[in-house]
Automatic annotation (TrEMBL):
Keyword hit for Oxidoreductase: yes
Gene3D superfamilies hit by this protein: NAD(P)-binding Rossmann-like Domain
Coiled-coil zones: none
Alphabetic keyword roster: Oxidoreductase
A Pfam family recorded for this sequence: adh_short
Native organism taxonomy: Bacteria, Bacillati, Actinomycetota, Actinomycetes, Mycobacteriales
Name by which UniProt lists this protein: Short chain dehydrogenase/reductase
Organism: Mycolicibacterium cyprinidarum
Amino acid sequence: MNALALSGVAVAITGGARGIGRATAKAFIAEGARVYIGDLDADLAETTADELGCQGVGLDVRSRASFTEFLAGVDGPLQVLVNNAGIMPAGRFVDELDAVTDSIVDVNLNGVLRGTKLALPGMLENGSGHIVNVASYLGRVPAAGLATYCATKHAVVGFSESLRDELDGTGVTVTVVLPSAVRTDLVSGVKLGGVLPTVDPKEIADAVVSSCRSRPAIVAVPGWMRSYETAAALVPDRLLGAVRGRLTRQRVLQALDTDARAAYDARIRRDAGASDS
């Protein structure tokens, strides 16, 4: 598959006002692309766009009408769609409010399906395009305290690989990016470092941009994380469980700094329309 020349092409990024989305927009702009960012926080999207020199609008990926309006605002054919919007509430699944569960699924999974379905017809008509779905390495491994989040990311990985095969020969490709822990609001209150690989948003942004050139099926960041899958198939369950405990269970269920995470969790509940009752 030929590399996409990014200079002058239209790139749409969801969840583009902060974190990975912002870094990805900046990276594409550096390549000369025409970037359009959408974010649930419309004011922040506009502010970020002004700072970076691109277009920014409000976007609710849970709404087909909102997503349709966002893509309609792209000037010229859309060549790259980056489905980046995502949320990650943490805690015991049994305590998770139904509205929050629904919101995780609707943002992390349905938002990807919805945006891809809307962008595909134009790409197929032009015989060219690239879709990048920002998932997580937790789309390959389980994580206690993040059950619903992991479920959605596993689904995005499966969707991306399946759709890639379905689009074979059309000129349209799909890459799923699997970051380890990224230093953004999503991991606020989680103790990073140690055996938990941690990266910066720029590293994910660079991987997204690079995928437009090589168009691989899967990109892990850092790349060596993919060795986990081979090792997991060979290691006894008890040992594997101990490793997972150090990676996530202790950090999310036992040592989570709820004060540091309070603002993020409150925003997620508000956006989900959830109450604590």
